[in-house]
Amino acid sequence: MIKRIFYLIVLTGIMNAAMAQSKQEAAVSAAVEKLRKAMIDGDKAGLQNLTADQLSYGHSSGRVEDKASFVENIVTGKSDFVTIDLTNQTVSVSGDAAIVRHVLAATTNDSGNPGSVKLNILLVWQKQKGQWKLLARQAVKVP
Fold it and tell me: How far apart are the C-alpha atoms of 105 and 81, rounded to whole Å?
């Protein structure tokens, strides 16, 4: 009888941990979606709210931006995303950090020049003061 109670307590603990993890994964996924929309809309306040002050934003070309230049380039249209479609997304949460991987397919209009991109993306999110913030991003071209 004591063994059964012990197993029940352990199983309950494992289930609670799994549910907490899935809630965090859902919160990170929601932050990714907000970022996607803010990038399409050129939403300065949204971009600033979703990104960490220490942001390192890596492009597939090798160029790396800090938070200020990332936000400015999106808002001014230097980096203009007309559409962004995300597929094959995975989210892994560990404490106050989360790793997101997905494929980004987008139509662009950078500085008025239409184009398209297909990239593998790695995002690193950090929970800061109860909110998920983008800390780092790296893109590589899909072969």
Answer: 10
